[in-house]
Every structure is written in structure tokens, then in C-alpha cells.
Design brief:
Elements (H helix, E strand, L loop, with lengths): L1 H5 L17 H25 L21 E9 L20 E3 L8 E6 L5 E8 L7 E6 H7 L6 E10 L1 H4 L20
Parallel strand pairs: 1-5, 2-4
Antiparallel strand pairs: 1-6, 2-5, 3-4, 3-6
């Protein structure tokens, strides 16, 4: 019995009315098939098409920096897997140099980083972007982290202070030879 319900009528039993027989229903069906199929196909293809990717969002633009700017937060360090790779500034990362990554400070900015837990401090140059964790403000190179005592804990509380902007160090013999503000004493490393 189930087979009888699923059995389709043979082709000879199909009867399609023609326009001459006066069936307006058949004419409507024909119109729907002829015009509806291409429209349905176009809608289907449009729905299946992948959306255009959004334009890439740029990293936050470096904000203007002034000597004396301070931030407090947590710092982590990075080293061996990234040693020898390009940084966001385009230079090759050397984990044995006193460098750091910051989200917004301009490349070439010099900062003093102080470990709030043990009082140690180090001068580092910003040459990369990061860190990519929300509560952290700085990613230190291995060498800087070693001086600050961050190798064991991995993350340390820090306070950083800008000591020279990139404009102050551009074109000079040393990394720091003078301050960016008029009337201030020269800052030397």
C-alpha cells in the first residue's frame, strides 16, 4: 500500500490543458514558470554570493606624544618565536635589544619603564605594535624584561614615562641629545 502511495502516474496519464482548451490557469502557470524561474535564479545567486569583505581597519593612529607623558598598567614580554621577524615599524625584531611594543606611541619614542613591584627601571625604544591583551600597555623585548625581572612572572605591573619623542631623535648622532620642549634641560641616555 505504501508503494502505491509513492507511485507516480505514468507519462501517458499526464494531461496538460492548452490555451485552446480555454484554461487560464495553465496560462498563468506558464507565465510564472517562464518569468519566475530566471527571477528566482537571480535572487538565489544573489543570496549565495559572499558579502564583500569590510575594508581592513587600521591600527589606531599614533597620538602626538610629549615628553613626560605617563601610563600605568601591566607589561608582558616577547622573544624567541618573534626574534628575526619584521616588526610593525619594518625593522627586524632583535630580542636582545632594549625595545618594546606599544599600541599608540609613535615608533622611535623612548620611554623609561619602571617595574612597580621591585623598583627596577629600563629605557626602551618603541618599535612595534602591541600588546594584544586588553589590560596590558606594553610588550617588552626579552632583554628589557630580563632587566626588569619579568622573565619569571611573565606579566608585571609597570609605569612608563616618555623621555623623548621621535622628532627629537631624528637626524641626531645619539638616540637622545635634547628635549622636545623649549627651555628644558637636555635629556641624555
Amino acid at each position: 500500500m505504501a508503494l502505491k502511495l509513492l507511485a507516480l502516474p505514468s507519462r501517458a496519464q499526464w494531461k496538460f490543458p492548452t490555451a485552446e482548451e480555454g484554461s487560464m490557469t495553465w496560462m498563468k502557470i506558464r507565465r510564472i514558470v517562464w518569468f519566475g524561474t530566471p527571477a528566482t535564479l537571480v535572487l538565489f545567486l544573489a543570496a549565495c554570493a559572499s558579502p564583500r569583505p569590510a575594508p581592513p581597519t587600521a591600527a589606531p593612529a599614533p597620538h602626538p606624544v610629549f615628553v613626560g607623558h605617563e601610563e600605568t598598567g601591566e607589561a608582558s614580554w616577547y622573544g624567541h618565536p618573534y626574534h628575526g621577524r619584521r616588526t610593525a615599524s619594518g625593522e627586524i625584531f632583535d630580542m636582545y635589544q632594549m625595545t618594546a611594543a606599544h599600541r599608540t606611541l609613535p615608533f622611535g619614542t623612548w620611554v623609561v619603564v619602571e617595574n612597580s613591584a621591585n623598583g627596577r627601571s629600563v629605557k626602551v625604544r618603541i618599535n612595534d605594535r602591541g600588546p594584544h591583551k586588553s589590560r596590558r600597555i606594553l610588550d617588552l623585548s626579552y632583554a628589557a624584561a630580563r632587566v626588569l625581572g619579568a622573565i619569571g612572572p611573565g606579566v608585571i605591573p609597570v609605569r612608563l614615562r616618555v623621555i623623548a619623542s621621535p622628532e627629537a631623535t631624528r637626524g641626531l648622532l645619539g638616540p637622545l641629545s635634547h628635549s622636545t620642549r623649549r627651555g628644558e634641560e637636555p635629556v641624555r641616555l
